[in-house]
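Predicting holo structure, pyridoxal-5'-phosphate bound.
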Amino acid sequence: MKVEPFHLERFYVDYEFSVGTNISASCGAVTTTEDILKHSGVEAANQYISLDLDYRENRGDEALRNEIVCEYENLNSGDIQITTGGSEAIYLLMRTYLEPGDKIVTEWPIYQSLFQLAADMGVEVLSLPLLAEEGYIPDPAKLKKLLLKNDVKMVVINHPHSPTGSILTAELQREIVELTEKHGALLLSDEVYWGVFYNKADEVPHAADLSENVVTIGDMTKPFGLGGLRIGWLATKRKDIIDRASILKDYTTMCAAAPSEFLAVLALQQKEKILKRNIEIAIKNIELVNRLVSDSGGKLSWIEPRGGYTGFVRLNLEGITVDEFCLELIREKDVLLLPGSVFGDPSSFRVGVGTKVEQFERGVSLLSDFLAGK
Ligand SMILES: Cc1ncc(COP(=O)(O)O)c(C=O)c1O
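Done. Tokens:
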């Protein structure tokens, strides 16, 4: 099978671990093992040290699934399949639910694997545009048109959205759930940024709580800065979907890593604290970008993110592409931004507002110097 390169990940393979100041990452500020164990007590720390490193349950540790379902109103632990990050959740679902010749609708721009895995299988991908002038929010009338004209098997959304940080209102979320169901398609709601809303009032339910016809993806990576655990999940009432994902997982990773599952349980028990810290960081960083944009004399513009840890900044300069701008910035200032071309939108670059403030401040200051010379 043909595999199209994952442009975002290839870009990071080249630069993420060699550039001095990365201000483009998509996660909340990184949490350490020490952070987690320090707040879990001596007994938990001792249990971690003496943990047996045998294989684990394919479905995921029962204690972990029990912690995760506390997040959902209408699901129980049997409705969760633990995966190796949100990445494996997307893979298992796409490969077991779709067939060549099917059609799916995905928001655009969007994280590449949310459409590429399907496209590589011979699935036709139809785009639901997220436009800056519409606040990067999907237009349900456009979705309805696509669903009326095509026999669509799956609709894919992602909010809080990467790279733009847009969110849905509860009304719009419900409308999309109902529209999708009415037209016989499955809704995949990528909610890896679950809980990351800057205003409590903006928080919406998990889409999987609203209908049996929805699969939600969650992870420990984004909200808590725990990408190294590689823990994610599929959540749905559809037993057939969970069962098929579980069968394919026997061929991919079989089960999650024991230390990761253990630490994920502890982190979920401290989630309010970690999330509060990370959201406060994001709010401070957003202010830094607001200042950068307003001091840029029109060279930059953006729509402030409302959730998640990323924002999409438009570059309004003649004679230089965003790709060239980002590469020059690496060469001259050792600062990493993510060009929007990796999302198929070359007008803008992504900033990672979850980055620890000191690092983000340094990167923004270097970016500001660089921009002044343009
Ligand atoms: C929208 C979205 N979904 C899924 C993933 C994959 O998440 P994970 O790192 O947990 O595999 C990412 C990672 O950047 C993402 O941005």
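The chain has a mean pLDDT of 97.
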